[in-house]
Amino acid sequence: MRQIYRAFALAAAVALISQPAAAEKVLRLTLQLPITNILGQNAQAFKELVEQESGGGIKIEIYPSAQLYKDKEVPQAVASGAIEMGIASITRFAGTRPAVDLFYVPFLFNDNESIAKATAPGHPIREALDKEMLSTGARPLWWQAFGLAIMLGKDEPLADPAALEGKKARVFGKMLGEFVKSAGGAPVLLSGSEQFLAYQRGTVDFGMTGVTAVKSRKLHEVMGYLTNTNHAAIEFVVLINDKVWSELSDQERAVMSKAAVKVEKDLRDTYGKLHQDTLDWVAANTEMKVIDLTPAQLTAWRGKVQPVYDLYVKQSGETGKRLLEEAKKLQ
Prior knowledge:
Elements: H1 2-18, E1 25-30, H2 38-53, E2 58-63, H3 74-80, E3 85-89, H4 112-119, H5 124-134, E4 138-153, E5 168-171, H6 174-182, E6 186-189, H7 195-201, E7 206-210, H8 211-216, E8 225-228, E9 233-241, H9 242-247, H10 250-285, E10 289-292, H11 295-302, H12 306-328
Parallel strand pairs: 1-2, 1-3, 5-6, 5-7, 8-10
Antiparallel strand pairs: 3-9, 4-7, 4-8, 4-9
């Protein structure tokens, strides 16, 4: 009997010794862009920092190119806990939190410097919009600069708003859709991952996007013209389910927060140069023609903005009115 007991004790000890250390926490992150895009590389840098600083206690799994969710599905997927983390254009919250569409009110932000100020932690605009998004259950962890919006044309350039009359244009936000309507066009809301096929099949005549997407999504293969309008500030946000965040230890949250601050600053600091570098690459390596607006053309586009301002204030109320005033201080 004593020998049997010893055998059982030995087996239990061996089993205990062979047990793995405390299980690592795996956080899945969905991304609509390719991992090679600047936003994918930014997420990869975050992953490496977190895994290193947590000693492997936190593992970040990145699923790029809309493998799991399209851009428009990300906020709800994260808020519901269907996935722990996700990256989406901030405008994807506009359906329930219309104030977040501030950055897609055309020509409100004129350069990367004003955008950097508005999105800096502690700025009234950043604080207000973070609060709006957090109220859905998806906590903003950091913001990702995606530069200024440009316009694409397949068979003709979109340099004058008159070219939009009766034509379809891909947009990525409600305010930009209203902008297209004000010029007589028909907006079509499409996720970034749907652009290539839409342009290739002629589903839309024109489109709007961030300039780096022209290279990473190979849009130069299906569109012939790039107009450097710089008419909207494209901002993405990296989200984490608020319940998942609350269940992390103080140390784990500190590791993730520190990494988030670093990668956000790194991307913000380099995006202005990246924008120009990409334009230079397009001009040198593709058949796409890059068009810069003349002062008269820019004035014509700005003449289509007022209906968008009116709609933004109508939908977002006092919050939107206050944020517009804050944005105008930066002009």
